[in-house]
């Protein structure tokens, strides 16, 4: 198999048929002999699964993977990568913001020896200024916090070689940040600048609270710097406490020992807040370790729909 195209889907009934049409056309136009299109239903609540079943009956190249429940985008994408068998694997979202027509030029780069050709967003159409600002801040925070070099303004849209996918499949993390995991694998990786389009239909599946959770998953998966920040907070608190102690001694000898409730309350609140922040960060890492050591399956597949080729 020359190529696998992996597309995680959650409530994408409005765009799924158009996505399939454009991906199929891109694969037919590409310089390859064989391909498969893997659609992963991530516990959709609309008609996404029934559309997948219809498409699987019509297209012998299509494989529809139905997960047992909603596992989240990153695990749904993982399920598709585990199912893939192509020498190269293209990762794509179902909203058509990342044009499947870029497959051919990305394949040309891959055949020159590049193991990962990742799409870098030169511009983004249809995004609010707030979202663009938050995305910019996220990538800069991630770059500062991460122990590896994760490219900025890059999503999951990428073309990968089979050896990269095989190495990825050996990574057992429950909390996944796939673009960071692929960067960690190494090999030869190059950017592919492109213009990101607006959604074809529907609404984003990443509201603000999910973006915050995704950001923490990304940072905690590739850095222990938040734990180190706890040490900095502790040292800062100790230094401030030392200064306050010296001030108290100086005030005693200067006969200025009249105390007020405001200063006492401020000091207690300040140090209590630092302690809670440190405990919260440590607890988050411990909780993730607890979940990981259970060693549960990353995902559960309910069924796979495909039409056997004649």
- Shape descriptor: elongated
Q: C-alpha Rg, in Å?
A: 25 Å
CATH superfamily of the largest domain: Spore Coat Polysaccharide Biosynthesis Protein SpsA, Chain A
| N→C terminal distance | 16 Å
Largest β sheet strand count, sense and barrel closure: 8 strands, mixed
The strand line-up of the biggest sheet is 7-5-6-4-1-2-3-8
Give the helix tally. 10
By CATH, the topology of the largest domain is Spore Coat Polysaccharide Biosynthesis Protein SpsA, Chain A
Average pLDDT confidence is 78
User: What is the ordering of alpha helices and beta strands?
Assistant: EHEHEHEHEHEHHEHHHE
List low-pLDDT spans: none
Tally the beta strands: 8
Structural class: alpha/beta
Question: How much helicity do the residues have?
Answer: 40-55%
Topology (SSEs and partners):
Elements: E1 3-9, H1 16-29, E2 35-41, H2 48-58, E3 62-67, H3 73-83, E4 88-91, H4 103-110, E5 116-124, H5 129-145, E6 154-161, H6 162-169, H7 178-185, E7 189-196, H8 208-222, H9 225-253, H10 261-293, E8 301-306
Helix pairs in contact: 5-8, 9-10
């Amino acid at each position: 198999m020359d190529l696998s195209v992996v597309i995680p889907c959650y409530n994408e009934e409005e765009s799924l048929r158009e996505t399939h049409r454009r991906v199929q056309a891109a694969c037919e136009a590409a310089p390859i002999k064989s391909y498969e299109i893997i659609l992963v239903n991530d516990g959709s609540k609309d008609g996404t699964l029934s559309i997948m079943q219809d498409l699987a009956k019509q297209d012998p190249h299509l494989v529809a993977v139905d997960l047992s429940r909603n596992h989240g985008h990153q695990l749904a994408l993982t399920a598709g990568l585990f199912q893939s068998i192509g020498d190269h694997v293209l990762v794509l979202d179902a909203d058509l913001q990342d044009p499947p027509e870029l497959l051919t030029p990305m394949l040309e780069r891959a055949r020159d020896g590049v193991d990962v050709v990742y799409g870098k967003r030169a511009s983004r159409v249809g995004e609010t200024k707030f979202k663009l600002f938050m995305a910019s801040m996220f990538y800069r925070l991630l770059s500062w916090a991460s122990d590896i070099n994760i490219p900025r303004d890059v999503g999951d849209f990428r073309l990968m070689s089979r050896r990269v996918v095989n190495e990825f499949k050996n990574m057992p993390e429950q909390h996944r940040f796939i673009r960071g995991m692929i960067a960690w694998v190494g090999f030869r990786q190059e950017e592919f600048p492109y213009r990101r389009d607006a959604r074809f239909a529907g609404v984003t599946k990443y509201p603000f609270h999910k973006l915050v959770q995704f950001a923490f998953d990304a940072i905690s998966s590739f850095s222990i710097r938040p734990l180190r920040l706890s040490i900095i907070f502790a040292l800062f608190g100790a230094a401030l406490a030392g200064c306050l102690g010296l001030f108290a001694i100086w005030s005693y000898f200067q006969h200025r020992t009249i105390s007020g409730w405001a200063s006492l309350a401020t000091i207690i609140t300040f140090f209590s807040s630092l302690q809670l922040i440190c405990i919260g960060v440590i607890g988050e890492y411990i909780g993730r370790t607890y979940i990981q050591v259970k060693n549960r399956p990353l995902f559960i597949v309910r069924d796979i729909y495909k039409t056997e080729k004649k």
